[in-house]
Amino acid sequence: MLPYPALHASHGGIWVATPDGEVRGISRGEAIRLAADTPTLVLNAPLVAQRLGYAELSGLDLLELFAFLRPARFMVPTPKGLAAVTGLPTPESDAAVAPFLRDAAAALLAIMEGEWPEREGAWHAAQSLFRLRWTWAPAVTQRLAKPERAERWLFSKLPEWEERAPRPAPRTIAVDGADVVARLDALTGAGAERRHGQRNYAAAAADAFAPRVVRDSPNLVLAEAGTGIGKTLGYLAPASLWSERAGGAVWVSTYTKALQRQLAREGERLFPDEEERKRRIVTRKGRENYVCLLNLEDALQGGFAGRAAILAQLVARWAAYTADGDMVGGDLPGWLPTLFRRNGSTALTDRRGECIYAGCPHYRKCFIERAARASADADLVIANHALVMVNAARGRESATRPTRYVFDEGHHLFDAADAMFSAALTGAEAIELRRWVLGPEAKARGRRRGLAARLSDVASYDDGGAEAIAAAVNAAQALPSDGWLGRINEGAPFGPVETLLAAVRGLVYARAPDAGEAGYGLETELAEPDPGLVDAAGPASAALEALLRPLLALGRRLESVLAEAPDWMDAPARARIEGAIASLGWRAETVGAWLALIARIGGPNDPDYVDWLAVDRVEGREYDVGLHRHWLDPSRPFADTVLKPAHGALVTSATLKAGGDWSVAEARAGAPHLERAPGRFEAASPFDYAGQAELVIVTDVKRGDLAALANAYARLIAAAGGGTLGLFTAIRRLRAVHARIADRLARDGLPLLAQHVDPIDTGTLVDIFRDDPRASLIGTDALRDGVDVPGDSLRLVAMEGVPWPKPTVLHAARRLAGGGSAYDDRIVRARLAQAFGRLIRRADDRGMFVLLSAAMPSRLLTAFPEGTPVLRTTLDEAVERASRLSLARPLGHEAATA
Fold this sequence. Notes:
Blueprint: E1 6-10, E2 13-17, E3 23-25, H1 28-37, E4 41-42, H2 45-52, E5 60-61, H3 62-69, H4 79-86, H5 94-109, H6 122-131, H7 137-143, H8 154-157, H9 177-188, H10 196-205, E6 219-225, H11 231-246, E7 250-254, H12 257-270, H13 274-280, E8 281-283, H14 293-303, H15 307-319, H16 335-339, H17 367-377, E9 380-384, H18 385-394, E10 404-407, H19 413-420, E11 423-426, H20 427-438, H21 451-459, H22 463-476, H23 484-489, H24 496-511, E12 522-525, H25 531-564, H26 571-599, E13 609-618, E14 621-631, H27 635-643, E15 648-653, H28 662-669, E16 679-683, H29 689-692, E17 693-698, H30 706-720, E18 724-728, H31 731-746, E19 752-754, H32 762-771, E20 776-780, E21 796-799, H33 809-818, H34 821-836, E22 847-851, E23 870-873, H35 875-883
Parallel strand pairs: 4-5, 6-15, 6-16, 7-9, 7-10, 8-9, 10-15, 17-22, 17-23, 18-20, 18-21, 19-20, 21-22
Antiparallel strand pairs: 1-2, 2-3, 11-14, 12-13, 13-14
Helix pairs in contact: 3-5, 4-5, 6-7, 6-15, 9-11, 10-11, 14-15, 18-19, 21-22, 22-25, 24-25, 25-26, 30-31, 30-35, 33-34
């Protein structure tokens, strides 16, 4: 047993367990003194530090020890989760947690004494961590014997991917309806109940896999199927059948990571054999999600210092055992980067497009390249909407471009396209481009390399390439540099682009409503610009044109090198040049979009776009300034870029019509921009909402009264015994409510988790919430799509008010084009439907949806499933009804229609 005390802090109090067996409650001051003077065992140090109000806490965190001992394995970062991985009994009270942590530490350290699958590499990593003064290093190194043979270095251990011949184009085949039903029956199992809604859905989805008959017009199927229909297996049946017979890949695109994980689980039904499943179902994400081995090597060899260097060693342990190298949503625990305050984790991925492809010594082992090649030969590729659009718009994989798509969570396609096909000339974006071109400046640390370092050898095949690089480097000096925001605020911008941003900032503060408030972001239309902005536009445009010209020239030079194919160009060199061309094209496209945006200053309005100026702030602190451009209808570039080249696409969701009718669903999916009309399918949820759920509208919580709002949440959560998802439309109110009720609920044994408060990533918060039926989770209304918690852990959903859209410049333009107040109503109905969909996920779920707003218009009640009982009542009555959720009996509605 370690000779250290253990400390546990929650909203219910603070406890310490000493090495001599004493357990007692202590004050916050005593806990801080103890943690400052003595090595202390804790679970989730950042969370304990927040509870104590002592940011410098750096005890022996059991989560870090678990990450070292069990790389690429997940643990819910709670006492209950720790008990599950150690085999110890779960502590029954907060007071019991502190001594439990001492027992758990001993159990974890004992892992090294027996059969330990992750032993390889541990001794070498422990020695490195000892030199970095990792708090666990002495205890770990004492228990690790030096291996008889030298351990393999991570970069020699990882397997290499292999080049394969290009996959032939898919064969033209028709998918027979009877075969689809037979495949569905095989997936659901011989003893499963036949669900007619699911069978009809699968038959309708099969139309997306029919041969295309009109160029640039895919077989588009729009399918709205309520929760419980079984959409996933419904579309996997025809998708897998088509892939098997046609020899092509089907890309299944989602919006949330939860659905990606569900799809991966459902793949076990298609391919029970694990090795076959890995080969035929591949998950793809954007390259910024994967660990970059070159960045990791640099971090391990001195590029990182302090706590960031310790994180790099733990990530290296994980990289040796990970299935796919995915640092965001893969098998790297989401809580690990937060233990280090995210210090260094983003620098271990390629977020700036600086990859040198075949010029990298780890190219043949690269997780990103491995995933790309695996997806080329897979039957099903699980991706996300953003990656599908990025690959279609500027991907390097044109030869293996998919012809069939399934867009699940299709109600998010419009928003994903809106983000993808937008442009923003801001200080943050411009300084990133400067760094991409110039590389490290002054005393910057890290592996970042500029354009010259990345391409000088291949671009200097003649003088033209070298001259283009030199011209780009010189032109990039005009872009904002470190400290740009401070100079702008002080009225001393440097260079033409900073001068433009200073003019933008001045005009925003002059025209934005409530500009004097120390609140959140400010914006104003890009209309009737003042002379200062017009005068700044010319020099900024000239500076960007001076950068664009050499980028385009360098791209053309590299293309000519490819065409000439000199003797030194082997396959890796070709891949490197192709990657450089794609990266240059992306950057040149960005600069071109910036120039078009600047041309709008003082120029004519383009009806296809919405342009505005913005100062981005958080809690009154400015962090970015710039000009923005979005498509008025982003489904148009989505249709042109993604849908038209495809042969078939299924767009599906439980809320596809987004609070409107089929014309809304078609418009948001891009169907009006195609020649052929889409197919439609609709099936209501099979759940008994009249018996399983109810909607309660509370009429006596005054709008704007934070104390009353907090009291309402506390009473509802206490009455339901936890199991509550609370949704807010403003972070400020969320934090204020949490501060008022967290301690109160903790004293009743009801943990309250909070997005934007707890130093834990959102995915892990949901995992903790799912794991504890007495826990509750509050967050912004964006959580309405990221929470999939069937069963007892989610029994009540409470929204603070009607989720009206924020009156931004972009929203005002789309509202004007989309029907005025009817457009607002559609957005609200869609948000309410998505939030309500969190409540009932299975046939045996039951629960209550509470809206804390007397101003809920009756016309919006169509957002909820038909038959759902609706009751307008007082908070007291809502609390009494919430208390029934903990009883094993029907809700017993006496509902009144509004």
